[in-house]
Amino acid sequence: MLDIFFSAPGTAEPCGLFTVPHIIGLIICAILIGVALFFSRNLSKKAIRIITLVMAIVFTVMEIIKITYKFINGDTVQLDHWFPLAFCSLFIYVLWMCALGKGIVYKLGCAFMCGGCFVGGLAFLIMPLTSLQSHPIYHFLSIHSMLFHSCMIYMSFMYIVNREFNLLDLKNFKYYALIVGPTCAISAIINVVTYLIPNVATANIMLLRHLPLPATFPIQWVYDLVGQLEFPFNLYTVCASLVYTTVPYFVNYGIVRLVKLINVKRSVKKTKATN
Fold first, then answer.
1. Which of 13, 111, 143, 184 has the fewest CB atoms within 10 Å, i.e. the most exposed one?
2. pTM over 0.85, yes/no
3. Cα torsion for 208, 209, 212, 213, to the nearest 10°?
4. Per-residue confidence of the chain (275 residues) as pLDDT tens digits?
């Protein structure tokens, strides 16, 4: 059983994108997220901290298992295959920051939790480029990635619904930018350094060097348009960094504002109806 669960790369047919197993996995994840959010209404601050700490421990252990699997199978040269520095990898650090942090550390953690986790998690579930393209759906790495990114979505809305941190405000965007911006800069530096030192390692940290998409994938033309240069710091890198540091936060901000607006209109209608 473990041989199947942790099968070496290339020994089993990959699941692929938008296949039947992928779609079924998406449906299961959506159901689990919905059920978890239903039972997470009106949680106390203590309960939220406990849930966050448990997730921090669980996903830290799973990340260690993932890295160990990569090393055992000799996948060490490509740093982004195992080095935990990607947009969604920030979720692990943020869990610890929100569970144990105080002051600015807690605010930075909540900024990413509320403003970045939903879009990051959803984008990966729709396009699991780094797992389902290489492994079957029942593989540890596939299950880990689907569970990990589902929990990103769940935790994002769990924090928002319970008003654990009133973050999604334009003036608080700075906290999100302060955690994502430097991460993009560090990732770009690592990509450039590994490029300049050949035969040691290579890196595409945070996908800032190129998009690992099939050549026929519809969005590939965007990368082709801005990422033609071979050197791993070009217009594509700049555009991708700007997307990371703005789009996730403001998408979630817009969703929350829209929901609030709808709720306000409903309450006004109910008030008029009772009068």
1. 13
2. yes
3. 80
4. 677 889 988 888 999 889 999 999 999 999 999 999 999 988 888 999 999 999 999 999 999 999 999 999 999 999 999 999 999 999 999 999 999 999 999 999 999 999 999 999 999 999 888 889 889 999 999 999 999 999 999 999 999 888 755 667 788 899 999 999 999 999 999 999 998 887 888 899 998 887 766 655 555 666 666 655 566 777 888 888 999 999 999 999 998 888 888 877 777 676 666 66
